[in-house]
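hiii, so i know i said id send this last week but things got crazy w the move. better late than never?? heres the sequnce for the chain we talked about at the cafe, plus the structure i predicted for it. fair warning i was half asleep when i ran it
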Amino acid sequence: MSLLGGLLPPIGLEIPCSMYAVNVPLRVNVLGIVSLDFKGGIKVRVEKNIAEGLGGVMFKIIGHEVSADSPVLGKVTLSQDWDIDTTPLSPLEVISTMPPKFKNTLYHDFTFTIEKPPGGGPPLVLKNTKTAALVNDNLPVFPPQGSVYQLQQPVDLAPAGAPSQVVATIMQMPFTVSHNP
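okay and structure toks below
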């Protein structure tokens, strides 16, 4: 399903991919930096075509969950937010056709759950305060095969309904993404 010669995935196609990120620095206000290794997956669905420039398609994230095990925080899970209709669509843009080159931005709103929060108590459920953007602007093929997507800016995490009460910040998140046919 590589995009060669300007061919794009068709509308409605669902594309599952594995994801992993190692040494993700999570700044927790009461602890400092905790390093996490996330693994899991993401699934996107092609929603519509992009007509501008050389073209492309827009994706909707329809499933996403990655988790990490931490001796300090227990299981830490980042999963797709339940209200997927408020998250912007994610573009896959054709940058050049010879050789093929694509830019993919994954816009993502998510829930971040810490199994053992500092200070004890039940699992702590946080949300990103602004939509996160993971970008790879030099994809030679799509779907990606071992391509690294970079977080465009740190992402603050706060309790739902209290976005000004930031509890933690994801400083970086270099996800390696590979298609799972």
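btw The chain has one domain: 14-176. thought thatd interest u
miss u guys!!
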